[in-house]
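agent> call fold_tool(seq_1)
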Amino acid sequence: MEGWAVLEQAGELTRSGQPFALATVVWRQGPSSGQQGSRAIVTAAGELSGWIGGACAEPVVLREARQVIAEGVPRLLLLGTPDQFGAAVPAGMTVVPISCQSDGALEVYIEPVLPAPHLVIVGRSPMAHTLADLALALGWRAALIDGPDFCAADADERSMVIVATQGHGDEEAVTAAVTARPAYLGLVGSRRRGASVLGYLAERGVPADQLDRVRVPVGLDLGPTSHREIAVAILAELVQLRASGALAAARASTTGPASAVGPSGRAGSLEPAPAVDPVCGMTVTAGQPGSPLEHDGITYYFCCAGCRRAFENDPAAHVKKETRC
């Protein structure tokens, strides 16, 4: 995949609500297989589509791109040997030394493409309609679903769910919502009504850790307000929580460590850990692509056949080098 095909896939991922990073080569110094304008997409699971460079550049871009997705902040990388740049590196640029059988260098801009916030509103009241309209005006993805039609599949760990059934099936809607483990779950109602709903669900075996995440009353406390002004209060709270990073923290606490999700995105499929090439110092994948070689009971990984041969010819020199580092 190259050229416009990369951007077409980026559009497809955006429409499906999947986070990813777009990496673009903005400068190169030959010899380098990456060319100016070369692009690649890196998903949150570490899958790469497109072309950004060879064995030296690709592992670094993959690692940095996943950090960019997690932090939501773009990053400008300068890949090459430190003595190529000296004091000429601009402030804010990340320099990653690579010393893999080439004097080439790359400057790669990695930007996060995060999906628009996903708000699921369960209910059909005028307040629910107003909340959906306000969310759409902010560019969010908003779904308005009647209580009996709502199920856990309508939300995921990145969603924000507002249960606004207002006494018509609150318990059923909250039960379905907690199963989805959304980043935020709010119940429209008084504190007394909330205690009644949550107490009922606790008696029927809904885990306490799930019920503890239900916020009720929902929204900022604006004092006596109309039904439509309640929608403003709810949206204001969601905006405040997103800006503070609280929703991202909640999502991380429910999904577990990132290392528990493999390249396929399936939980429990641990992806290969990164390793360091003992010859050139490059970050490589600790798996078959890393040309593994066992020496004195330790498995070493390499970025290319040349580094592997250099290690085979004089392993002692490179083992000592790795120990000093």
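agent> call fold_tool(seq_2)
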Amino acid sequence: MDLLNSLAGFLVGFLVGFTGVGAGALMTPLLVLMLGIAPQTAVGTDLLFASVTKAVGVFVHGRRGSIDWGVLRRLCAGSLPAAALTLLLLHYFPENWGLGSIIMPGLGVALVVTSLAMMFQVKLNRLGKHLRTTTPDSFKGMQPMLTVAAGALLGFLVTLTSVGAGALGVVMLVYLYPFRLTPPKLIGTDIAHAVPLTLVAGLGHVGLGNVDFSLLGPLLVGSIPGVIIGSRLSIKANHGYVRSAIAVMLAIVGGWILLGI
């Protein structure tokens, strides 16, 4: 089982390094549907998995100056309080109902939304550029509030399902900051935001008893070399086809979860 978990970690780490897609959208469905892990345990364990895996990326991007700290503060202003509130709601959720009864539908919805966001990322970026160019004052004036709101949505989804910090966060940012965030800053800022969010949410799930540390270790053993290999190979690869394939896969898995409930 440890070998299987490490292989799962390697696969997810490789795809994260190769495409930049968040660990939650890939790891949580894999843990629940293929390895038979309880939904709440899969979410809690994956959150700490993501925070550790992406912390290395923050260090690299920080040294390169590819993090927009102003945008990051706005995202955290919405996401961290939303994460705390979601954890509070999960704490008082009736035990006889079962957390899986809300986590699984939330996971299905989050996967479908993430899939659609990945498919329409380019069009949303073009729409953001158009609005930023034609109505610069009103668009720029709304940016802070919309960024906090986007962070709050991410905080809720990530804490409930562990999905959204990566792919969905990027899509929101390419719309809200079509000119300000260059590709390196887009990726760096998104990863930097994912670390405190997944850490806060993950530690909250530790308090809820939803983290399996015996599972976390093998996942990290596999994910670290996977991220390194995927990152190196991504330089020569066509990301468009791979991201499209992952988006379709996420839509299928999300639909499968929702139809199976």
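agent> summarizing second result for user.
Residues 2-260 form one domain. The CA atoms of residues 115 and 245 lie 10 Å apart.
agent> awaiting next instruction.
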